[in-house]
Every structure is written in structure tokens, then in C-alpha cells.
TrEMBL record:
Phospholipid/glycerol acyltransferase domain boundaries: 5-102
EC class of the enzyme, as a word: transferase
CDD domains, sorted: LPLAT_AGPAT-like
Biological process terms in GO annotation: phosphatidic acid biosynthetic process
EC number: 2.3.1.51
Transferase listed as a keyword: yes
InterPro entries: Plipid/glycerol_acylTrfase
GO cellular component: plasma membrane
Keywords tagged on the record: Acyltransferase, Transferase
GO molecular function: 1-acylglycerol-3-phosphate O-acyltransferase activity
Keyword Nuclease: no
Name of the protein described by the UniProt record: 1-acyl-sn-glycerol-3-phosphate acyltransferase
């Protein structure tokens, strides 16, 4: 499929745990190409996105989950615009990739994953060069993010919900 290492953005909490467990999780995450992202917003989030841009500038592959968190119920939620900003600032194409049945392999709240086969569907590359130089326009960022999310929805067949997954998780505790 791909002969280059894929780096992924992962919530910064995975890298700040205490004790032996915290050290093991951090070491594992770094070893498998995870990069910490601070999702609190503002300068902290911007610094994390700039780290991700450096990965793209090197010509490496970056995997991004546009929703910014796990779905609480296997539906597809509104994407965050950070992905669009990175795409427009780097000029790279987006290859939508969908993983099927991850919620069955690692249910929300489970301490350990279940041994299951995870399906993968790879879509056609998406080119956003028509928006070159427009990465500061919030309407363009939303449009690019929505186009990426639509491609994911078409590949996955998931029901789309036009709210942020993090809002639902906060409200439901999932």
C-alpha cells in the first residue's frame, strides 16, 4: 500500500501520563509515529499544527482524523478546519482513507482492544490547489474541510452529523 512511514496526530494527553504507564504509553506513541497535538485551541494548537506542517514539508505522510476525536457512536461528525489549513499551507493532496469497524475493535470506554479485523478503504486523491493562497479565509477552510468529510462519508457509508463530535462527547460523557 504505502512504503513510507505515516505519522498521525494524537491528543497530547497520551504523552503526559504519569509513572510507568505514562512512560510506556508515550514511548509507544512516539515509536509508532504519533505526534502530540494540543487541542485546547489558540497558540498551543497552532504550535501543534506547525509541527505537523514540518512533517509534510519533509515529504513525509501525515494521517489526520478531521473530527479531532473519536466518534461517540460510529457516526461521522463535523470536521475541524485545522486539516484544511494544513492542506492549503502545504499544498499537498489529500487521500481519504477510511477504517471500518474500529469502534468494534476498541469500544468507547474499553481498557483493551478486542482482536478483530479492521477494514480499510482508500479513496482517490483530492486536489485543493484551486484554493492556493486562501488559507486565512474561514469560509474556504470550512469548504475544504467539508469536502474532505464528504469524501470520507462516501467511502464509509456513515451517517453524517453536522455537529462536532467533541460537543456530543462532552454532553453524553462518551
Amino acid at each position: 500500500m504505502i512504503e513510507r512511514r505515516v505519522y498521525f496526530l494524537a491528543k497530547s494527553e497520551y504523552f503526559t501520563g504519569k509513572g510507568l504507564k505514562g512512560w510506556l504509553v508515550k514511548t509507544f506513541m512516539l515509536g509508532v509515529g504519533q505526534l502530540p497535538i494540543d487541542r485546547s485551541g489558540g497558540k498551543a494548537s497552532e504550535a501543534s499544527l506547525n509541527t505537523a506542517l514540518k512533517v509534510l514539508d519533509r515529504g513525509d505522510v501525515l494521517g489526520i482524523y478531521p473530527e479531532g476525536t473519536r466518534s461517540p457512536d460510529a457516526r461521522l461528525y463535523r470536521g475541524r478546519t485545522g486539516v484544511a489549513r494544513m492542506v492549503l499551507e502545504s499544498g499537498v493532496p489529500v487521500v481519504p482513507v477510511v477504517m471500518i469497524d474500529t469502534e468494534k475493535a476498541m469500544p468507547i470506554g474499553a481498557k483493551f482492544p478486542k482482536i478483530r479485523r479492521i477494514g480499510t478503504v482508500i479513496g482517490q486523491p483530492l486536489d485543493f490547489s484551486r484554493f492556493e493562497g486562501m488559507s486565512a479565509d474561514r469560509f474556504v477552510l470550512r469548504s475544504v474541510t467539508d469536502e474532505i468529510t464528504l469524501a470520507i462519508q462516501e467511502l464509509s457509508g456513515q451517517e453524517y452529523v453536522d455537529v462536532y463530535a467533541s460537543s456530543v462527547r462532552e454532553r453524553t460523557g462518551k
